[in-house]
Amino acid sequence: MRNWFRKAPAVQDQGTLPALIQYYKKSGDFVHFHNPQTPQPYWISYFGSLIDVEILHRDILPNLHKTDLTSLEAVKAALPFEDVVITSERQKIEDALFRGSVLIQLHETDAACALVRAEMKKSREVTIPEEEYSVVGPKEAFVESITTNLNLIRTRLPISELQVKEYTIGKLSKTKVAVIFIEGIANQENVNTVCQRLENLQFYQILDSSFISQLIEDNSTSLFPQLIDTERPDRVAGALGEGGVVIIVDGSSHVLIGPISITELFNAFEDYFFNWQIASFLRLVRVFAVSFSILITPIYVAVLTYHYQLIPKDLLVTLVSSRRNIPLPPILEAIILELTIELLREAGARLPSKVGQTIGIVGGIVIGTAAVDAGLTSNVLLIIVALAALASFTTPVYRMGNTIRLLRFPFLLMAYLWGLLGIAIAFLFLITHLLRLTSLGRPYLEPIYPPRLKDLKDAFIRLPFSMQSNRPHFLQTKDPNRFPVKKADEVKDIDE
Length: 496
Description:
Elements: H1 17-24, E1 30-35, E2 42-47, H2 53-66, H3 72-78, E3 85-87, H4 90-98, E4 101-105, E5 113-117, H5 146-154, E6 162-169, E7 175-182, H6 188-199, H7 209-216, E8 228-230, H8 233-242, E9 245-249, E10 255-258, H9 276-305, H10 313-322, H11 330-350, H12 353-373, H13 379-392, H14 398-436, E11 438-439, E12 442-443, H15 485-490
Antiparallel strand pairs: 1-2, 2-4, 3-5, 4-5, 6-7, 7-9, 8-10, 9-10, 11-12
Helix pairs in contact: 9-13, 9-14, 11-12, 11-13, 11-14
């Protein structure tokens, strides 16, 4: 496991609490004032940008004014909070202040203080999923608050076996990270792998779950995602019930699931809301669409460059007539169109939503028509590239869609160099890479390799729930059974 560490600027060592407060007073949002008008004067300090002022003026200050504060224990008793902490430890004081606590001293030179939590909680409301939207099923999505996200998961799994381990990662960001699993189902080895990698992780700043994903994946140089990031609480609950391990990062609206196999990247959680025939058909359509998106343009280049004898005579006439006035070779023609599609995608993603949709639709029509009229590309290739781009959108996992977009270019280059043989060589390199790839130490190509027929029941096709009594074998769960098979078979309708 690699340690990613960049040394942050060292904070001046402050040995005493008064010296620490003097250092924090350099910041414009740090408040430190003395109130001499109470029965027992006190000093109060806090970061104004981190605390809820309403809590301060409603619950803290009025109670301090009513009480004779002879000691910190009296301060603790006077405040209507259960988690008032009395300490003189510098690290605890520092962490509490930056988490939105109010510091109370009886004398400015005291080394001990009382810490009262009054953090400002700002987070958006739970909304519908944007990247994994489904017509059927729940319409809730994760938000940037780790507390809210834990609530969304626990309401779906109200069991005592659901365990949460919390970590603080990032020398600068001090980001809260939680590892979630179901005790008695999840393989402890998978849990220990995730926890160990998080504990060994040293990085200066964690701003999103994608940082964690890149830092703890088995192969950080691979294009293929080895952890699924999702914004759907129902998918996370389903993964936990299967025996998976989940990672939540405070400040991120996406949650990580692992270990995974490559087949899960083609499965939408919405598949479980349809009957098994429709779900299986949709999964097969996605697999075909991904294969089509990667291979169709390279095959076009290979056939027109080296293997035009393979084209039927009637189709060859159409292709020749469409390329009659094209001055560019097929490889340049294909690359120009592919790059044009990528430019339109990137422009549509970076612009505001309404403008981006207009750019994508109008830009594609205008540029495509102009390119054909100008004789820079053939209308046949334009149709092929458009269909390939459309097929790449069928993947339910966004990161996998980006992988498919990039894979087309090496296949295009190999097709130009050696034709269909080059495509076969590129495919062999791809399969070799996937065979060596793992997710948290588990085989990435399972259940294709190693072949496990039982796991094929919920891979490229989805059989009925009654035939899926076992959890995925590659997760090596403690409890492999979802439900007793015999009892499922004995259930009959009331009229039988």
